[in-house]
Amino acid sequence: MPIYEYRCNDCNKKFEYLVIGKDGPDACPSCRSKKVSRVMSACGFLSKGKSGETVSKSAGSSCSGCSSGNCASCG
Fold this sequence. Notes:
- By secondary structure, this protein is mostly beta strands.
- It has one domain (1-58): Rubrerythrin, domain 2, CATH 2.20.28.
- The chain is 0% helix and 29% strand.
- It is built from no helices and 5 strands.
- A 3-stranded antiparallel sheet has the order 2-1-3, with no helix packed on it. It has a two-stranded antiparallel sheet with strand order 4-5.
- A hairpin with a 5-residue loop joins strand 1 and strand 2 (14-18).
- The model has no long low-confidence stretch (mean pLDDT 78).
């Protein structure tokens, strides 16, 4: 049973919902609007190089405005 992230199209709040079968949330838990959309969840990963150094990170990293196009430079 996966947990998906949703966003309310009316109040713009994000929330998580445990999906059982193919059912999604009936309504936004904040405003009760039925206009909700599933959003791409942020995932995080950490890769180690041959000598144990960090070579890439995603999502939870502190670099928000990186312009290098390659997370390996973040370390």
